[in-house]
Amino acid sequence: MPIYLLDPEDPEAFPPPEKADRSGVLAVGGDLSPERLLSAYSRGIFPWPAEGTPLLWHSPDPRFVLEPEKLHVGRSLRKTIKAGTYEVRWDTAFADVIAACSEAPRPGQNGTWITDEMREAYTTLHRLGFAHSIEAWGGGELKGGLYGVSLGAAFFGESMFAHGPDASKVAFATAVERFREWGFHFVDCQVETEHLARFGAEHWPRRRFLTALARALREPTRRGPWT
Questions:
Q1: Which of 33, 54, 196, 207 has most Cβ atoms within 10 angstroms of its Cβ?
Q2: DSSP character for 70?
Q3: What does pLDDT average to in each consecutive run of 10 residues of the chain (227 residues)?
Q4: What would the DSSP string read from start to end of 2-21?
C-alpha cells in the first residue's frame, strides 16, 4: 500500500482512512496545527510520531474501542474509588498531565512519541476547548491521569500515567462513567492494551468505527473547560 504525503498547505487534505497500510500508517508529513488535528480526528485518523521519520498519521484496522455502557470496573478498583483515595479533577492541570504522560515508561519503548511539538499542539487544543485532562489527586499532589480529545459524542484517548497505585485507573473509570451520563457513544482507545481490555474495550473493524464516528459527530461538542 502507498503511504501518502500530506499537502503542507491544506489541513483538510487527508486520504481516505481505508488507504492505510496493514500497520495502520496512512500518511506522512503535514503539521500539528489545530485545524489539521481536528480534521484528522473527525476522519478517524491520529498522529503517532516515530523517531527519525517524518510525522506519521494512523488509522488502524481493527480499532480498540470502549462503549461507556460496557465499562467493567473490578471489585478492587471499585473499593479504591469508594474509599476516596483519590480526588478526581477535570482540566485543572492539563500541561502537567501531558508532561507526565510523555515521561512515563512504556513497555518495549526506549523513548516517547509525545514530543515537545505534540505537547505544544495538544496544549493549544486544550486552550481551544477540545483537549481535556482527567486527573487523580492525592495529598494535594497529582498522582495520575489521562488526556484526550473530545469531538461530538466521542472521546479520543491519547495517553495516561500513574504515580500512585491505581491512580490512572481511577481517573479513567471515573471519566468513562461521566461519559456514559453525558451520552457519549464511545471512547477511542486506538490500539489494544491489556489495561484497557480489562475495562471492556474491544476490537472494532475500521468500517464499524468510522460509521460510529460519523454518528457521534452529529452531536454537539462539549467544548471548553470540563468541571
A1: 196
A2: G
A3: 89 96 95 98 94 89 98 97 97 98 68 86 98 98 98 98 97 98 98 94 98 98 96
A4: PPEEPPTT-TT-PPPGGG--
DSSP secondary structure letter of residue 100: H
Amino acid identity at 62? P
Q: Give the count of beta carbons closer than 10 Å to the beta carbon of residue 22.
A: 8
Angle 10-14-18 (CA atoms, 0-180°, nearest 5)? 175
In degrees and rounded to multiples of 5, residue 71 shows phi and psi of -60, 130
- Helices 116-127, 34-42: axis angle to 10 degrees equals 80
Q: Is 65 buried (19+), middle (13-18) or exposed (0-12) by CB count in 10 A?
A: buried
Q: How many CB atoms lie within 10 A of CB 172?
A: 29
Each residue of 144-166: b (16+ CB within 10 Å) or e?
Answer: bbbbbbbbbbbbbbbbbbbebeb
